[in-house]
Queue: 2 jobs
Job 1
Amino acid sequence: MSKAAAFSTAIETPPLGSAYQGLYSWVATVDHKRIGILYLLTTLVFFVMGGIEALLMRIQLARPNSTFLSPDAFGQLFTMHGTTMIFLVVMPTLIGLANYLVPLMIGARDMAFPRLNALSFWLLPCGGLLLHFSLLAGGAPAVGWFSYAPLSETSYATNSGVDYWTLSLLILGVGSVAASINLIATILTQRAPGLTIRRLPLFVWMILVNSFLVILALPALNAAIVMLFIDRHLGTHFFAPANGGSAVLWQHFFWAFGHPEVYIMALPAFGIISEVVPVFARRPIFGYEFVAASTVAIALLSFGVWAHHMFAVGLGHPMDLFFAATSMMIAVPTGIKVFAWSATLWGGAIRLTTSMLFAVAFLIQFTIGGLSGITFAVVPIDWQVTGTYYLVAHFHYVLFGGTFFAVFAGLYYWFPKITGRMLSERLGKLNFWMALIGFNTAFFVQHFLGLMGMARRVYTYPDLPGWALLNMISTIGAFLLGASVLVLLWNIITSLRHGKPAGDNPWNAWTLEWATTSPPPAQNFDRVPPIRSRRPLWDLAHSENPDPIVGGIASSDGFALEKNRVGIVSFLITESVFFLMLILAYLFYNSHAMNGPTPTSMLNPHRTGIYTLCLLASSLTIWLAEIKLRAGKSSAFRWFLALTILLGIVFIFGQGREYLRIFHDGVLVNSNLFATTFFTLTGFHGLHVFVGLIALLILMALAFAGDFRQGRIEAVKTIGLYWHFVDVVWLVVFSVIYLRLLL
Amino acid sequence: MTTRQFLISAWNWNPWVITICTATILICGARNKFRFARKSAWLLAGIIIFFLTLASPIDALADGYLFSAHMLQHLLLLLIIPPLILLSLPSAPVPISFQNGQWKRFNWILRHPAANWFLGIGGMWLWHAPLLCNAAVSNAWIHRLQYVSLLLMGFAFWWPILTPWSKQRIAPLAGMIYLFTACLGCTVLGIIITFAPVEVCSIYLHPMDRLDILPLIQNQWGLTPAKDQQLGGLLMWVPACLIYFCGILGLFARWHGETSNTAIIPESTFTKAIKEQPHVR
């Protein structure tokens, strides 16, 4: 073996066996490739369902004053269509693609946490079925995908549809967050030697940024949904204005999630385009650094623009001013990306495969959607066209003309890798042209309808001049688009059987997933090629003319991260945002006088202070336990662990007494907003302490079983970190609720 | 009084400010032998902004009239002037006295980003506790203390990112986290101030109209105390975050611009050589 062979890394082959045969093996699989395929198949089913819902609505809207659907059925359909497409199709499709591709693209054998991966997938069908079960249980939700309060409160949404909506979205949210934590840990810790972060394929880079966006944004939705659920089931008034709640707070919480969500659905699509365009233009991407940096810029800005969804609420002149400015700013990094892709095409030897056609259409349609998006940043225009079909046209240009076209491009690009067979290019071209014409026919005219004043979400419209014609055109386009999906399905089915064998690298692409067989073996790679630039396979094929080495000869980033630590830290980040939302709600509702029990009359800071000291002491003891374990003193370790558990129990006991005392005074969670926010915030914290105690007890059991003798202390460190987090959160909660009373 | 009259008349020729500005220009200019380098532009910008912050009508407005003007001063002192000055300093090795001389212990603090982070963000939160905020407006000495402490805390905050001792700079990825969490810190404070139904700084509710400009502010500019506080909160929330955000992009550029030695690596013996295949159409 020559000295250079040290750069190609051998990977152990796992034992193959019954785990890879039969239907059961698909249910029980923890292989990222199979889970990725399961994701894609599941979302395909939901995609067809969401599409049928859309077509039903288009039939209803084809003619004025139509009675094809009742108003209530229409309401249910647009809610289900929006919720399905966003939470059951776009997000999981992108997560599924990432699931399949990220480990391959970074030269890893699997995701960092394969079992967690299986869990995140199975939560998807679970959440999807729960949402659709509402159809059998008295009617689907009919409140729109953003479920504006107070419409979603029990007094207006009387059937159980919204309850199923909340539960389903919570489950799906947990699944997405789990998948994102997994992706972060995978990308940060499982990369092949030589693949530094600066050499990452752009798809992986964008998935990394996107996963951070998910773990930061989703908890805002989860917190809001939890509050809505409590409102509906415990009779509280978070979002019911009649009893002091604030419907606008729901909108803030929802859009604090909702706008980053737009980018959660767009960034991976940008990643797909950044892979497809260079390969079919036969040129490396123009301005890699700018594309990467603009991704970060978009992600950061996306948290500071949500109020532009709320200009029509009347937030006040200063608010409108600032958010108009930031919203316009987002056009800059997005524009940089479009320029980078166009510049990659410029002068390239372009191969117009189906994948490339979809990518080029993406460029144009996404730009149209982006430009109409900028018009929403202009407050007076927003007032005019928000809530009309202009908005519908805008976001379909972003999400269908943008994201879905990118997904189709990715599907045609990676299908050979996933199945080992090529999709038919002939059917592919048919699919593309039908989709292109159908999509633009369906949605471009909706710009005009919106400007003419046609309101979205209304089940029918009067026979005004031009409206009937434009709506009929839109419906015809929608059906053409639907037919194009049938062509795609037919293409997939026939190509799976009779498609041309793909070979390892049918497109002459340059990233690592093409270095292995198609479909890849269970272990992904036997050897990973050397990586010194962003196009390792180019370097391999053109040893006379390799890409410049990126970032010097360093084969690592200069920091080594441990996957459990990355996992738990990401988890704690998402938990912090969840608690932040609950704390902000507490502050918001308790900063002005109200009737009924108040913090001053109900709470005693000194008494709770003693229990707080117990909890803080437990942080110290678990720290000492960890030190003792590291020093190999296992009996001292067990003592300190036991002490930690004891102190935690004392704290829970103290909280229980506090609750009982408050209940004794006749104050319940629905008494007033103080009681509601107090019980929600401290209750969720108590729940976390409880979960922490269970984890500590498991550690204790493992310790007695002798599990940590070999010095495997990751579990202790991980649980320890969680326990410190619980204590820090309590410190903040204690200051916000109790210490404020002493000032 | 009209806006124009106000903008002309409300300058505050504070001798302290003028002395500091001229002294800095003279000292730094002398060190450069009065040649204008690119780095001098940062310094000049910093000094001009410092002068505008404390001598222009912004200061007159911040002095008891407008919470938002006070917030603007706060942001300039904490987030704009210190990084500009730090950018103007020529890069240098870490002085011996800081490496292992008598300042070694002090250097430990300089090198520990958590301490700097808490100084920067803590300063922001601390001065917006209602008690301190009011005290700073009503007492001239506390006011001066506030200015000085904001500047110092600003230097402390930006030090890990922009220190001229390039060996001690924070790693780019860690720096991005440093700035992002700072952005979160000021976002939360900004949101609370923007939406708080109570007054953060009650002294701005009933200004003493020393300059006779209250009608101008409230009627012509339309800045009622409620709007004023909202504006102040938004300043802390949005532009402050955009500054951190520029810092993050700057770090990103620095990270991707980094080049270490690019020695040529011998060809590997990767067995499955991938050959050019005919294009698939």
Job 2
Amino acid sequence: MALTEERPEVLELESGDTTPDVGGFGRPSHGTGWKAWVFTVDHKKIGIMYGAVAMFWFFCGGLEALLVRAQLFTPNGTVLTAEQYNQLFTMHAVTMVFLVIMPLAAAFANYIVPLQIGARDVAFPRMNALGLWIFVAAGIFINLSWFVGGAPDGGWFAYAPNTGVAFSPGHGMDFYAIGLQIAGIASLIGSINLTVTILNMRAPGMTLMRMPVFTWMILVVQFLLVFSLPVITVALVLLSFDRTFDANFFNVSMGADPLLWQHLFWIFGHPEVYILILPSFGIVSETLPVFSRKPLFGYGVIVISGAAIGFMGWGVWAHHMFVSGMGPVSVAAFSATTMFIAVPTGVKILNWIATMWGGRLRFTVPMMFSISLVSMFTIGGLSGVMHSVAAGDTQQTDTYFIVAHFHYVLFGGALMGLFAGMYYWWPKAFGYKLNETLGRWHFWLVLIGFNMTFGPMHILGLQGMARRHSRYGPEDGFDFWNAVATIGAFIILIAMLVMAVNVVRSWTGYRKGRVPQEGADPWDGRTLEWAIPSPTPEHNFDYIPVVTDVDDFWHKKYQRDESGKLRKVADGNDIAQKGDQHPHLPSPSYWPVVLAAGLPLIGLGLIYNLWITGFGLVLLVGAMYGWSLEPATDPDAGHGDGHDDHHEPDGDDDGSSEVAAETEEAPVG
Amino acid sequence: MASTRSPIRRRFLIGLPALVILLASCADGRLDATDPKGVNAEAIWSVNRLSGWMATVVGIFVAVAVVFVVVKFRERDTDDPDEVPEQIHGNKKAELTWTLIPVGMLVFLAVATLPKVFDLNEEGAGRTIKVEGQQWWWQFSYDIDDDGEYDDIITANEIVIPVGEEVNLEIHSNDVIHSFWVPQLNGKRDAVPGRVHPWKISSTEPGIYYGECTEFCGLSHANMQIRAVVLEQSDFDEWVRRQLEPAPLAASGDAAEGAALFAANCVTCHVINNGDPAYRVAAENGAVLQSGVAPNLTHLMSRTSFAGALFEMYDDDGNLNVADLREWIRNAPALKPANAENQQGMPSFEEKLNEEDLDNLVTFLQTLGNPPILPD
């Protein structure tokens, strides 16, 4: 909120009027109904929408996977044509990476990070909304291709020159190239916003090394995004120019080297892997301590190894290219770097186990998902070490052994962690817990289905089943394990339907009073988000807490008595803030959603007709104009002094927040 | 909130790498890299066994640790709810230990395996064969007269090599990226347009070894197979001798009718080396289609398969697979996905050729070359 303090003053100076004229447009108010969501700049609503939209795409991406598995159920499958198969495996990956796991991480980052650092919103609330709506626009744009002649069919890795017009004459790859550029804008906006938020808006006393590990991992991820997205953007721009304007960046007959694409793609693509997994590492670093009733073992080491993974992740990209013919010296070098990135990852696993060691473990659903991350990710990590052996990888790469590996990492790792996060933070976001019994069904079905689907792929890979083949022959000997894998995939479908039922039933039960309202601290949590009511009040914190330790909230609840024995001295629900203050908040705005709507139009125009691009540009520039004239906080709304209250709460709470924090937050028993 | 369920069962899944290696080693697929037949494939498999066992040992260690922790430290009904577990924030020695042990293991793995990368890239002692990948078939060319031109024997989808010889490959691509892989003989190597990639294969036993394209190359990526036919030296010499003979000119009868149809319809893409210029369309400047963009059929009958090694040429009794061959000529895209309008894959001749034409063409094709020399 640093900027919101400045802007109105600047406008005042220029026009002498705090109510700028923006044509016929008024300003949305903190309303109700759909407008309260579409025009919101509240990080919590934005986070929830990120999650909801991502879960919609999760079901789409899952359906794509199920069709692929149905095709491979038997040899010479006839469920899909080769063309459909290629589109489906491409879109399954694009959807799961860019429209599911990244935005799910963004959902948690948006919702939880400001709460964990004791902030009332992110640094740039309208930009936050813009990021969400651009992500929504990108998802719609890419999937529009299904209805206008066919989805992208060149793989999510889109190796040149197969993705050039000569070999992929349809518009599918145009939707891919432009759609991912749009999605990249969304992620870039989000990453800058969250970086500034985390670095500038932490509560007093929260030094970097007192930050919750989830926030730490999100910070590392934002740095990875800021530096890696420009690389893929460059690659995508080159591809778009090749396809749209007959440029020759990847045209071999004009002297291009197709390996350029591979280097650019994987310089982005490998940090991307850590972008996908680190948020989940952060989530389990929150849940394991809470449900073990112990602090994280080796906080410093886990934070530093997370950051180390972030750094080392930049030096391993070419392990995706061990058979590309780039020469033995580079192969050996990247083989070695890839081996050693296993060290910080392995340290994390062992520290998580040590966190549980000696604790008193509560097997709640989030805990079960967290433990399954620790064990399933380990399998994926170990097969990853096998791939790092470059000589051995010449047999493994592009086989189902790799498919097994990265699904153990991204499903067994990233998704399991995200599921843990959903069950864990659900009461904070909505005020009630998801049903634990249905949650257990969800967990066990996912775990069984997941291992049935991807476990056999290790075997298939060693048997020589190649990836991205739309069929295999009966003489290849792949029948049995493919059948098992397909059955497993449908068990995952059932698991996800159980989760959907859980969400609906818990919600209706809560509305009818059958599911209890949770207090501020339903899990006996350790971090600041549990020190405020559930669901989170719109302004998050009545007053900004002062932080004196890692796991600050836990230290307010547990202290040593005279004999030095640790005792619970206060209940989290009792000492939490009440949520009854009404500080001034950033105002909603029309412009983010309008601006975001311009981008897919520009993209469509580049594919079909430049006039549409013109219309999109008008929308885009118009929205930027309106945005820049609009003060971040509506001077006509509520308390309206135009100044933000980062440190000074509004209303009757006139004393400094530090004093308030000490008196109200530290009852000593 | 103690769980009534035992979470032990799922921990066993972590032993999966061990299970995988056990099961895979008794599989008998024809693309099985765990059943190597060449020196390079053997070297790779030994590396993979090493890394596989190391992964298994570490995996079992982690699994045991997780199971132990989950069983031993789970909340029990008998636990005193007021008892707060000791708040241990870390242990420098322990953390240093479990940082250094993996470092040591990985240093060992690196030292043990990195030299293999260079071994695999060393030139073999044998002859060199040119490999060209294109959508969606492979061409193999031999330089028999040592003039530096790979133009003496040109064959498709089946690379024939003598047993025991470490044959060098010079891998090219004519369109998009492909990858040459015969798992029992060596790992893979990409075919990248504009680049020439060296690789090598060898086998210690005569036999037919199967392979596939393993870099996604478009519509029919799944149907771009490879066969490596490994022959005893004497058989290989006989194969070379026969391949160097030109195809006979069909003199009369159905075969001559078929030859005329071939010259009228097929030579736009296919080549037959028989000295007759009618069987070769000159490479015109800029023409997309020209003789040679499709497999050279001079010794078609000497191959064990056709259409990207998708179909067997002969049945178990040695009879020609007329049914598939006929269907293939009639409507290839129905048997193997293609995009012929964009010059990707063989077009359908359903409109152009009637049943008699098809019969005559098959009769003509049967005159092209001797039956294959099979490994013992």
